[in-house]
Amino acid sequence: MNNKTTPALLLSVCAALFAAGCASTGASKGGSRPGWVDGNSSDFPRSSYITGVGSADDENAAAERARGEVARVFSADVSVVATTSESEANATVNGKESHSFSNEVAQKVRTATQKVLEGVDIVARWKDPTGRYYALAALPKAQALLAVNEKSTEIDTEGAQYKAAMAASTDPFDRAKDAAKLLALSKAQASLAADSRVLGGGPLQGTFDGASARASAAQALAALDVVVAVTGDGADEVQTAVVSGLNAAGLGAKSGSVADKGDLTASAKVAVTEQAAGEARWKRSRASASVVLSDGRNGKIFSTFDVTAREDATDPGEARRRALSSLSKSAAEKVTAAINDFFANQ
User: Cα separation of 145 and 115, whole Å?
Assistant: First the structure.
């Protein structure tokens, strides 16, 4: 799994966030080149606005790119949900095929950022003599800070509810569910804190204690007994990856067999095969793994997915190592997403 935000994907995310309902001025055709095209605008000073300039052969595309430039300031938040995969993968949840998991943490962060960016408007347009369109997008800092504070207040309320529920519960799964929610809120709060700094608003004034929430959540999640069992060629590498994925979701894990009981179980079958690479000097390895995650309370499988990776090298041993490394990275990320999805839907 290769997590990176591509310009096209970031643009599509930004367009989805801002395309509807944005006010704008008409395009100014010809005339002298406006100062804002080069990032200088007396009407929208940087002390009061976050601005972005976009250009394209199409007027609408220029506007979208301008909004994207404003969003780029908050790209650490937007990119949480803008990822691409270069390996083959599929998943089955409750008998239905799916190619992605709804991630509670990512959704919380995306919602927080979307709230901040709702105030982005196209405030000026210009068409140069060659037919190139330019657009200026602006986000009033004061307006965006109001959205930040509003979202922070929501996090305060939700955080208090989940923390109280976790403290009152004696069931480890209920506690883990609330813990997962607290972790999501903690990351969303960190996102808002970063937004507030960008907007010149200083530290958040909310009551939600992210550090305390993370500590309480970690304790609740660590109380679950999680068993990992991996078999096949390359089992050691993939087992390490599965454990890493569980750790990233806040869970501890121990090695065991498929027959071992636990609150949660994660099993996988791994295979590595050699394939023709097209040229005699290149050697290709294909690594694959079928991963199964089960709920120990009832023995039911809540997620399965297959992951495949192919890598080439002049040395067959190196090709195998690369294939298992790519496979392991993808498997770890899929396990983390599946666990987050599991607790989010409890």
Answer: 10
Q: For residue 152, which of 206, 210, 76, 201 has the smallest C-alpha distance?
A: 206
The predicted pLDDT at position 113 comes to 64
What one-character DSSP code corresponds to residue 185? Answer: H
Pair 132, 53: CB distance under 8 Å: no
With b meaning 16 or more CB within 10 Å and e meaning fewer, what string describes 70-97? bbbbbbbbbbbbbbeeebebebebeeee
For tokens 């990233």, what's the residue?
A: 248
Ordered by where they begin, the domains of the chain are 7-85+119-140 (no CATH), 143-222 (no CATH), 226-344 (3.30.160.150)
Cβ-based neighbours of 297, under 8 Å, separated by 6 or more: 173, 263
User: What tokens does 274 get?
Assistant: 């050699």
Q: What is the mean pLDDT of residues 102-130?
A: 71
Q: Which residues of 249-280 are buried (b: 16+ CB within 10 A; e: fewer)?
A: bbbebeebeeeeebbbbbbbbbebeeeebeee
Confidence of residue 288 (pLDDT cuts 50, 70, 90): very high
Chain centre to alpha carbon of residue 151: 19
- Residues 6 or more apart from 318 whose CB is under 8 A from it? none
Q: What residues contact 65, with CB distance under 8 A and at least 6 apart?
A: 11, 52, 54, 55, 56, 135
> Taking 50 as the threshold, does the pLDDT of residue 315 lie above it?
yes
9 Cβ partners below 8 Å, 6+ apart? 82, 84
